């Protein structure tokens, strides 16, 4: 697996492990953008990330941030900070890392799947969607240039079981937020308190162009469900998605708007692809071959 030379991708923060995944005084090796790296955790609970060159020479120490239950690093020079997600700092929330799932596809396919409400009724039947209520109502997308993020607002969809805590169906209000090419989250109204939103994230570790780990931390309002039940609910949803994601072709993401024709329900995907194209990212992007 070759290390990418795409500076746009290399300059982004990406996760490389969970907090606590490496034991005190221990080490774990993994891969980002084709580059082998090591993560060490000192006895005083500090993390160090270094590259592992193939020739066995000394590696390069990389920047490290630990937030949202994850360890983040970058192989380049980060042009944007890690996003601020205030919900993770609210003391009454359940902040939980729901595990990481390996998926053999482009990281951008993962982001688009997370943004896609149209598949709820068909893939997550009787949980996030109902077979007789499939319409995706019109919503708005915004490029918030002050933070360089893509937002989808005024999203509404009927869900039979919107969360582990839900006992009945509801019209769920969503706000989607794409924070970088490799990170996306949603704000979803809390079933028992309409003044608050749950915050659910997907941070993607691109091991290669079509090999990823998806990390799922969340900060939710739920006093009753066990941590195991919360994790099981999120994992079961994501594992249903993985089957679809790994069968999409091409696995790389086309940015040519004529290659995969969108519908009205794909407004967030359209905005995301335009954003990726404008930043001239090449890693994980499908380039149509000349005849």
Features:
single chain; 291 residues; N-terminal domain of TfIIb; Naphthalene 1,2-dioxygenase Alpha Subunit, Chain A, domain 1; seven-stranded antiparallel sheet; 16 strands; 37% strand
Summarize the structure.
The chain folds into two domains: 7-73, N-terminal domain of TfIIb, CATH 2.20.25; 86-285, Alpha-Beta Complex (Naphthalene 1,2-dioxygenase Alpha Subunit, Chain A, domain 1). It contains five helices and 16 strands. The protein has helices spanning 7-10, 107-115, 120-123, 227-245, 267-279; strands spanning 14-18, 27-32, 35-41, 47-51, 61-62, 64-67, 70-73, 94-103, 140-144, 149-159, 170-180, 183-190, 193-208, 211-220, 253-254, 285-286.
Please tell me about this protein's structure.
- There is one protein chain.
- The chain is of the alpha+beta class and 291 residues long.
- Helix content is 17%, strand content 37%.
- It contains five helices and 16 strands.
- The mean pLDDT is 89.
- The chain has two domains: 67 residues, N-terminal domain of TfIIb (Single Sheet); 200 residues, Naphthalene 1,2-dioxygenase Alpha Subunit, Chain A, domain 1 (Alpha-Beta Complex), CATH 3.90.380.10.
- The radius of gyration is 19 Å and the shape is globular.
- The longest helix has 19 residues.
- The strands form four sheets. The chain has a seven-stranded antiparallel β-sheet, covered by helices on one side. A four-stranded antiparallel β-sheet has the order 2-3-4-5, with no helix packed on it. Strands 1-7-6 form a three-stranded antiparallel β-sheet, with no helix packed on it.
- This is Aromatic ring-hydroxylating dioxygenase subunit alpha.
- It holds the Pfam family VanA_C.
- One of its GO terms (molecular function) is dioxygenase activity.
- Keywords: Dioxygenase, Oxidoreductase.
């Amino acid at each position: 697996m070759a290390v990418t030379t795409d500076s746009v991708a290399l300059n982004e923060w990406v996760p490389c492990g969970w907090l606590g995944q490496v034991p005190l005084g221990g080490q774990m090796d993994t891969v980002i953008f084709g580059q082998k790296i090591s993560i060490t955790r000192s006895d005083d609970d500090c993390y160090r990330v270094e590259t592992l060159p193939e020739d066995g020479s000394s590696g390069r120490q990389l920047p490290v941030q630990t937030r949202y239950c994850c360890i983040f690093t970058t192989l380049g020079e980060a042009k944007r900070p890690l996003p601020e997600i205030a919900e993770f700092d609210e003391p009454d929330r359940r902040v939980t890392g729901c595990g990481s799932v390996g998926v053999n596809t482009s990281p951008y396919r993962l982001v688009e799947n997370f943004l896609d409400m149209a598949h709820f009724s068909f893939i997550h039947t009787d949980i996030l969607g109902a077979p007789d209520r499939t319409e995706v109502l019109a919503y708005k997308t915004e490029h918030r240039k002050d933070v360089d993020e893509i937002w989808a607002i005024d999203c509404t969809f009927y869900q039979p079981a919107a969360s582990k805590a839900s006992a009945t169906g509801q019209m769920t209000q969503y706000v989607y937020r794409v924070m970088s090419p490799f990170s996306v989250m949603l704000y979803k109204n809390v079933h028992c308190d309409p003044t608050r939103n749950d915050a659910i994230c997907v941070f993607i570790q691109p091991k290669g162009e079509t090999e990823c780990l998806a990390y799922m931390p969340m900060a939710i309002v739920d006093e009753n469900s066990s941590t195991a039940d919360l994790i099981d609910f999120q994992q079961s949803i994501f594992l249903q998605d993985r089957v679809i994601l790994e069968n999409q072709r091409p696995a790389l993401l086309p940015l040519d708007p004529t290659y995969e024709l969108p519908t009205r329900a794909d407004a967030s995907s359209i905005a995301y692809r335009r954003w990726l194209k404008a930043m001239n990212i090449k890693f994980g992007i499908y380039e149509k071959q000349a005849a």
